[in-house]
Predict the structure.
Amino acid sequence: MAIMSFIFVFFFLSSLQPILSLYEDQVGLMDWHQQYIGKVKQAVFHTHKTGRKRVVASTEQNIIATLDLRRGEIFWRHVLGPNDVVDGIDIALGKYVITLSSGGSILRAWNLPDGQMVWESSLHGPKHSKSLLITTNLIIEKDNVLIVFSNGRLNAVSCIDGEVLWKRDFEEESLEVQQVIQPAGSGFIYVVGFAASSQFEMYKINAKNGELLKHESTVFSGRFSGEVSLVSSETVVALDSTGSILLTISFHNGKISSQQTPVSNLLEDSPGLAVIIHSSITGIFAIKTDAATIFIRVIGEGKLEVVEKTNHETVVSDALSISEGQQAFALVQHAGSNIHLTVKPAHNWDSNLLKERIKMDQQRGFVHKVFINNYIRTDRSHGFRALIVMEDHSLLLLQQGAIVWSREDGLASIIDVTTSELPVEKAGVSVAKVELNLFEWLKGHVLKLKGTLMLATPEDIAAIQYMRLKSSEKSKMTRDHNGFRKLLIALTRAGKLFALHTGDGRIVWSNLLQSLHKSESCRQPIGLNLYQWQVPHHHALDENPSVLVVGRCGPSSDALGVLSLVDSYTGKEFSSLCLVHSVAQVIPLPYTDSTEQRLHLLIDADKHAHLYPKTPEAIDIFQSEFSNVYWYSVDDDNGIIKGYALKTKCSGIVADEFCFDSRELWSIVLPSESEKIITTATRKLNEAVHTQAKLIADQEVMYKYISSNLLFVATVAPKASGEIGSVTPEESWLVVYLIDTVTGRVLHRMTHHGSQGPVQAVLSENWVVYHYFNLRAHRYEMSVIEIYDQSRADNKDVWKLVVGNHNLTSPVSSYSRAEVITKSQSYFFTHSLKAIAVTLTVKGITSKQLLIGTIGDQVLALDKRFLDPRRSVNPTQAEREEGIIPLTDSLPIIPQSYITHSLRVEGLQSIITVAAKLESTTLVFAHGLDLFFTHYAPSRTYDSLTEDFSYALLLITIVALVAAIFVTWILSQRKELQDRWR
Amino acid sequence: MEKGKGVMGAGRRWAVDFSDNSTAPSSRDIPDPPGFTRASVDQDDSAVSRQKNDAEANWKAQKAWEVAQAPFKNLLMMGFMMWMAGSTVHLFSIGITFSALWQPISALQGVGKVFEPYKDNKVDLLGPKLLFIALNLGGLALGVWKLNTLGLLPTHASDWVSSLSPAQEVEYSGGGIPL
């Protein structure tokens, strides 16, 4: 008996923490990981030395990366913090990557081959200014020198160890340094800039010791604006603030001389406001007007001459010195579906070193940046390769008139993600190109069987692993039985829509949305959100599903809205609308029309509600539910939460039957001196809840308060809304609310004294879990609140329940004021969080797990049972049986439950969970700079055989058993006959 | 037994009847040996036989009562086993409970068979049968009670609401922080 109870306890304990880790050979079977770097801001080639050719790039997402020039793969990559903006990169001594970041205050050197940091030095100065990084050939005391201008101070830094050799401050209050020039081979540095916007200043500094050699200044009648363009080591070109007069300033031998040329003199037609394009080509600069890009050559004494006027979108690269005293630069122009890449020598505009025409995918938009590099061909002529950055943030390498490789780096800045089903497999429609034939199928199974029976050679094992990873089953373009194959539709910051296949992460289609493209009516379009517009599944199966993209013309909240409908199968934009009202909120309603188009309510800045789609059928459906539709808005700046109902038609000038006025029903005004809203959370619309009852020990029942109109709001003291540690525990508190958004009733309010944000929260079923910082304990904490409906608890009569004579499933109204009770508990947690989500299954039967995006950019799964307010230090036997874990002060982090296993999702932003058709499984997609996708079964795959289940072994076993039965039967017959004859 | 069935099937061509036909007078071809009287076997002394029959009937009745009381011991044994098994659901307790349920049921099914050997027109089997049934029903009740203590009977409200889907909501509200 003792042994038995021991075994029982052992099994019980071992079932408490199901280990959901992977085996090594299961990595990559169901998960994929993609790495991106974002939109490239600056690129430097490294092709001089023998060995691997590479390009170093810094991006707008604050990444420094080196890419393989042959294939575009990442060699190494460093993600600097969100505040550590890269100002400049360069390569020094042929082995160090130098980066200047954080507003010019941090200078770092990284080892080029492996990306290890060699040194770091912080540069501070008297005031904020432009940051400039210049590598030179100067040598001071055997050290190669970098010249860095940042924060109003000029520094000479040793390349070897980052030591500051000398520094010089430019403290003049109004001085804006524009350029720092180190003429090659000379021992001095020019620092040029504007003082008080109308004075040109030039400082000549000894490069060896930072001594000021000369200071000159000239006053101009006008004011300067924008950038200056360097046309030689002693001449700059600037524009005045009206954008109509060009100033050519030369400071040869320390003497400033200048020349003013009105832009209208150069161009016949009035060009309007012009701006200088940043370039560094000797003798040539470019200005851009509304209509054209104009290249102007400087001839001798400040004389200007227009060399070319291009009307297309034209991009120019920096100058590249290809041989002694010779510079080249690249121009990229668009012509229909082609782009023209031209490389010209700086001294002679009319000759071309290279002219290529490359066919370009229309879905990439315009070229935004170009970087060139040269190589010597076998016939000793110069060849050029160009790295171009497109409008959709993709990166392409062009060489010899072809695209060598391309990277879809737009995926590093995903704004919103939704999913779509794939087409149903139909007879006669061949969708899988790589169907396995029977022989291959058999061969595969024989191999698998060998693996199971441990007869496989290492080559066989490798073949089995390859087969598992490259299974054509998972990347088919049709719906599967388990619902694992879907399309992930992602909207990126560049306004491009991508559809990724969940099987292998490949891009099925992409579309640079025309409606989110700059146009006359929409100057600064930005994409906001994605919604599922049409999900056909019952009676409209012949229709393709579609997604709704909501955008806005401009950053302000009252800018006009843009809607676009995109077919999920093909990626074609079949409808786009420029709205006549703004978009403040989009509310998908729980009603669909006969073609399964979901009704959406768009709320504009004037609190009018607009119904979409604008069809008579939609309005009919909406009218029947009209009195039951409410909406609310959370004004986090003023701390006001307001609820509205819809009134009759808009009282506007234009009769619009799809527009409705709102009537304010309730408002919750939080005192602005003590509370500031920092986070809200609601339940996911598509979350399925299996049951309303929660069974607890001793056959008791608690009824969950399940409402989709539940809003979680977290507020902190206004003082404590800053960084952690900026306030004392006494001045800081965190208040959480649970609010019913129909009636405005506060269901629960709780204060955590001495706690502070940031708060990450997730609301699901009848519970909310949130994460915050406890200043008193100096630790992060997670709390759980569960909310139960006490007014249902008296449904205890078994006979009534047996015959179904109860009102538990009849529709409920929020106005019935259910009596609720809440239970809550808090625990310490080690990590700070970047995102939090909860697993989602199709029927909501499977137990839930929290998916936590840790500060280390990994996704950790944490069983919800650890966050159960009914945990106690010594649970009773009945509670233990129920699965209640003894209370501990902190939540455990089980290393095996990192679902990203060894990978990192750099810059993790959000975790998206989608239910598969298989009840046990959730599809998890985490995105940031990287993308990661996997299947996750919170309670293991109890409803399907594992992937490595050997069907061949099963078949063979059955066949063998049947054969054995026959053989033994025959043998027994024979023996019996012999016995009888005896 | 059954093994011979295959051979003695419908398709037999010939058969040798080895059975003893000596008692069937019709097939008696051979006369009885001298001194052998068949009548002495067939006819019995009536007084002796009546006595014998009475004793047998008594013995049968006694035996029938014994058999009828047998489940009582079983009941005690079962009770002890159940007490040993405890009230948590695991393999041991489930096994015990189900055997406690199965034994009375199978015994009740075979009531006729159990009392078959004691069947006699002189013996009243109704009493023993009723006792037997009552004791087995007691055993069954014990099993059901055990099942209930294990929580396997749907006698609580929780058993009926555990898969009750959530109530539908009348109102719908959406919104949040403006985009």
